[in-house]
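$ run holo --ligand "flavin mononucleotide" --emit tokens
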Amino acid sequence: MDNPHPWAETLPLLYEHLWARLIRGVHDRHAPARHPVLATVSAQGVPQARTLVLRGADKPTATLTFYTDLHSAKVEELRTSPLAALHIWDASAHLQMRIDASVTLMTGDDVSDIWQRLPEHSRLAYSSNAAPGTPIADSLAYSKTPDQAAFAVLRLDIQAIDALHLGPDHRRARFTRADEWAGQWLVP
Ligand SMILES: Cc1cc2nc3c(=O)[nH]c(=O)nc-3n(C[C@H](O)[C@H](O)[C@H](O)COP(=O)(O)O)c2cc1C
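-- output --
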């Protein structure tokens, strides 16, 4: 059977395509890469995974950007261990991406221009009066007041991407920053 995804057949084309799918996630709310799963490690060494919205993807620097609440558990975890794994299953492309990254936490003046551009309803997710995960007496016993001081940007400097393409043939490749993204085929 012909490969419906010829971009999976060479390392440079595959790498280009990974980035095309990531960038589409930033701009298209229905794209699979819109909602990656970000995994961190708790202080007790327990893996923690959650869905986030992909806010930025820059191929030249191989960085991704997410927004979060500074008081959330993931921020505390990243302060202890600034490494993260990201998972995306792009079903229409038959493509799994597993990304290793080092994470830089950005707050305050460094992110105030981003905060200024956020619509009011989006700012509601970032509040200092109700830390995510705080126990409450009833399901809606909380209020959120937008607060720039609670707004944090996570910049992920990608170190490696493991790509698995499940076409008529299965292909797997690993691209690393250390190897300047040249790529290496792997047994799937
Ligand atoms: C579709 C979807 C999108 C989400 N987007 C974000 C996001 O962009 N930033 C964020 O901090 N949490 C987002 N969340 C909530 C997180 O998954 C998580 O519940 C929250 O950040 C608390 O996680 P933590 O306690 O591990 O820090 C999203 C959840 C879903 C289901």
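-- notes --
Strands lie at 37-41, 47-51, 56-58, 63-69, 83-90, 95-106, 151-166, 170-176, 184-186.
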